[in-house]
């Protein structure tokens, strides 16, 4: 499979097609610029084999698929199985790279990708621009083996969309946040999260806007269904310097998010400094109130009991 990817890249780009079946890999699969890797639906399974941990990705982690440095890349219509239920994968470097790792890429499409048995984040977009994650499914089934099993995690990236995904980190006890937009030293901006169905895991929230030393700005969270999570949508301050700026949660009647049976507040933006943040036209049912601080406008949200 890696050889086919290299040949397609050397020829100026192309499509590597995989038929239905299970493909065991003992090393990370690295996409190259101009190459699309397309399966035949969820029945095309790329699975980490018993010796998978003996080799590492470009940054010393254990991604099953990585786009490191590749542009104009597609990964579509397949299942990525990290074998975290079978491997002893709580190892150094576990959180350096991720199950499906879209990293340092431009023009990146992840479409109809199913992930299972993760031992790190399921789908991550890191330091990338002009990306789309749509129609994907994530799940967690392990208990007591791992921590920080986020669903779709966007870190230091820009000009992208996360649309129409089914994110379920609550199947086992190890799951963490469902959706994340995150800054550390680089800003994350101009990202839309829309039409997703999201359950966060026991260790996290349905969604987190996580801020480090850089600002998280121009983010839209619209028409998502957040359910059965320990918390709804929250902000988190992980190091000093950053803030939330120009963030819209809902925005109008057509784009309001639904929060159903979540613990704590439906939206809690009290932890991070905010500027020009609007939380409006959202609905909370058995999910608590909408909380903000100076710089957050709360309006036209509805709160109901069970």
UniProtKB/TrEMBL annotation:
Transmembrane segments: none annotated. Keywords: Hydrolase. GO terms for molecular function: hydrolase activity. Residues 104-232 form the Right handed beta helix domain. This is Glycosyl hydrolase family 28-related protein. The keyword Hydrolase applies. It comes from Kineococcus mangrovi. Pfam families: Beta_helix.
């Amino acid at each position: 499979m890696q050889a086919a990817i290299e040949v397609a890249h050397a020829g100026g780009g192309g499509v590597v097609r995989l038929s239905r079946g299970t493909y065991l890999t003992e090393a990370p699969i690295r996409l190259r610029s101009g190459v699309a890797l397309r399966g035949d639906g969820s029945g095309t399974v790329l699975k980490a084999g018993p010796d998978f941990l003996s080799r590492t990705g470009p940054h010393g982690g254990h991604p099953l698929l990585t786009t490191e440095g590749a542009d104009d890349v597609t990964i579509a219509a397949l299942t990525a199985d990290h074998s975290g239920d079978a491997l002893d994968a709580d190892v150094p470097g576990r959180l350096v790279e991720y199950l499906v790792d879209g990293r340092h890429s431009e023009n990146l499409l992840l479409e109809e990708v199913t992930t299972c048995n993760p031992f790190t984040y399921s789908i991550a977009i890191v330091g990338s621009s002009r990306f789309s994650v749509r129609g994907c499914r994530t799940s967690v089934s392990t208990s007591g083996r791992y921590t920080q099993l986020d669903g779709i995690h966007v870190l230091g990236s820009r000009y992208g969309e996360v649309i129409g995904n089914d994110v379920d980190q609550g199947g086992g006890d190890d799951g963490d946040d469902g959706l994340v937009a995150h800054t550390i030293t680089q800003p994350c901006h101009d990202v839309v999260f829309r039409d997703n169905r999201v359950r966060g895991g026991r260790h996290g929230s349905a969604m987190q806007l996580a801020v480090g030393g850089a600002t998280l700005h121009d983010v839209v969270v619209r028409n998502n269904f957040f359910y059965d999570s320990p918390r709804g949508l929250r902000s988190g301050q992980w190091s000093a310097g950053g803030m939330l700026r120009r963030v819209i949660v809902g925005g109008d009647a057509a784009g309001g998010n639904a929060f159903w049976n979540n613990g704590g507040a439906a939206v809690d933006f009290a932890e991070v400094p905010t500027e020009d943040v609007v939380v409006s036209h959202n609905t909370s049912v058995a999910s608590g109130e909408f909380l903000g601080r100076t710089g957050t406008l709360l309006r036209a949200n509805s709160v109901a009991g069970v």
